[in-house]
Amino acid sequence: MPKLEIFTQLCLLLRIQSILSMRNSYFQFKKFTVSHEKCAMKVGTDGVLLGAWSRVETCNHILDVGTGSGLIALMVAQRNQAAIIDAIDIDPVASEQAAENAQASPFKGRISVHPLSLADFAVVASKEYDHIISNPPFSRLPLNVRISNAQQPGMQILSLCLIY
Predict the structure, then answer these.
(1) Which of 17, 39, 107, 129 could form a disulfide bond with 77, CB atoms 3.0-4.6 angstroms apart?
(2) Residue 59, burial from CB neighbour count under 10 angstroms (0-12, 13-18, 19+)
(3) DSSP state of 50
(4) Prediction pTM value
(5) What b/e string do you get for 95-134 counting C-beta neighbours within 10 Å, with b at 16 or more?
(6) 83-126, pLDDT tens digit by residue?
(7) How many of the other CB atoms lie within 10 Å of CB of 27?
(8) Number of C-alpha atoms within 13 angstroms, CB side, residue 85?
(9) In this structure, how many other beta carbons lie within 10 angstroms of the beta carbon of residue 73?
(10) What is the rounded distance in angstroms from the CA atom of residue 91 to the CA atom of residue 84?
(11) Secondary element (H or E) of residue 111
């Protein structure tokens, strides 16, 4: 079977699983479960593919920026049994969910979740990272639209500058 056909079938399967997971409050992998009922961003195909394709095999310290449910942190922890992972998110509820998922996983001793913005984490971070990974949320809003309905009172909105 050609690689492109296998890739297409994998994407279709992941999309179907993603749709089905939205009916559940969790997404089941072979070695761990990701609960996402508390998170605004649910487990999706993009996060699963990013976690699967990231080259983390030789990394010792990995930073997951905007971890949400902790999906990508868990996936890279499974793929690299020696890596220590810090996962950050500005949403305290999502950070709580990610910490719960990490604690319930076989990788609980290697994933630390921090409810901080990237700017705040940079002040307290005590190590350098071999790999920084992020799956920022997708939005169809124009870049100049201000988002005013944050999930939690006082939540900071991280502005991203896109370079074309």
Answers:
(1) 107
(2) buried
(3) H
(4) 0.71
(5) bebbbebbeebebeebbebbbbbbeebeeebeeebebebe
(6) 999 999 999 999 999 999 999 999 999 999 999 999 999 999 98
(7) 23
(8) 34
(9) 31
(10) 22
(11) strand 111-114
Sort strands 33-35 and 26-28 into parallel, antiparallel or unpaired.
antiparallel
Structure tokens at 128: 């350098």
Contact 112, 87 (CB under 8 A): yes
Are the CB atoms for 70 and 34 separated by under 8 Å? yes
Reading the block at residue 36, the tokens are 């996402």
Which residue type sits at 100?
A: E
Q: Rounded CA gap, 115 and 118, in Å?
A: 10
3 state SS of 75: helix
Region label for 40, one of left (φ > 0), alpha (ψ between -120 and 50) or beta (otherwise): alpha
Look up residue 161 and give its two tokens: 């500058």
pLDDT classification of 46: cutoffs 50, 70, 90: confident
Joined tokens for residue 157: 């909105």
Interior angle at CA 134, CA 99 and CA 150, nearest 5: 70
Pairing of strands 84-88, 61-65: parallel
